[in-house]
Amino acid sequence: MRFMQGERSTLDRLLPGLDASLARFPLNVLESAPSPAIEAFRAAGGAGLLVPEEYAGIGATPLQAVRVQRALGARCPSLAVATTMHHLSVAPLVRAAHDGTGVEGQLLARIAKERLLLASGFAEGTTGQNILRPHITAERRPDGRVVLNGSKKPCSLSRSMDLLTASVAMPGEDGVARLAVAVVPAATPGIEVRPFWRTPVLAGAESDEVVLRGVELDPHMVIPTEVTADAVPDAVNVAGFLWFELLVTAAYAGVAGALVERVLTAPGGGPADPAAFTVGLDAAMLAVEAVARAMETVEWTDALLVSALSARYAAQDSIARTTSACLAALGGMAFIGSPEGTYLASAAAGLTFHPPSRARMGGPLRDFLHGSPLRIG
């Protein structure tokens, strides 16, 4: 079938054997915790997908990366979501490595060579809270070491992570707290993983709670930014949000695409008009790809991030329409005979719940259109 063929070809080229490895398992096994999909991703070298080649990584372009995520979403929704969070953690390290101290590059090389998985402890998950205001605090001791306290829930890859990357509030010398990115080895004393995810949907992403109590960290493992309480993202955060919005949208477009494939291959030859199910998702993916291509040619500004948000919110509408139409097309007997259709529709709806929500971005987007810097709600 040619639907999503380009995405699967990209996945096979960059991570050879991964799709075939995942195809050996039924969907319910892949989506359970623990899922064999995570170790299959690690074995295929997926940890280094966004790591530049100069640091021994694959060095995927944004366009290649979003195609990989869509292909993974069609095969294993939990893996696509979880690995989006891994890539979200890698992206700011890549950006920081350009002007950093060299520690960032060394860390990127370790991620690629040792196939380390990163859990993302960036702030989200609390309704009404600004996502640039973290749940984890950082205190600098007189000896220079940094002590972290707080928790992140949900936190994907919480039980398979080798490193935790977390947004933390770091007091500056001027007394103003700024956002920083802390990189914490998973075996560091004071880290605890607690059960949190209570739904079977996307359970394979291992999205439990990670608690930090008095976790001591070398200051070189803390990457500062210039983001303060006004929630205006700096270059590192713009890069992170760009990657996140595109990758997570592509992942959920893949999940919805898996449901479309079941309609197209249904007994009887499928629908007379397959475009009714494919066009909306393909159009949404084309919008994602347009921003991904732009990332290779233009400066990564808040204007480009607004384009990414537009693609993401448009995809949410398309996914909702498409999954509803697919369930209706599959019919009642499919609903009775297998949980896969309803599972994929439920999983695809998850894009709506990722930050920043459309409701919270209404005001910031309006202000941006009138000339203000973009704020992240």
UniProtKB/TrEMBL annotation:
The keyword Oxidoreductase applies. Its EC number is 1.-.-.-. Residues 34-96 form the Acyl-CoA dehydrogenase/oxidase N-terminal domain. Gene3D superfamilies: Acyl-CoA dehydrogenase/oxidase, N-terminal domain (1.10.540.10), Butyryl-CoA Dehydrogenase, subunit A, domain 2 (2.40.110.10). Keywords: FAD, Flavoprotein, Oxidoreductase. Pfam families: Acyl-CoA_dh_N. One of its GO terms (molecular function) is oxidoreductase activity. This is Acyl-CoA dehydrogenase family protein.
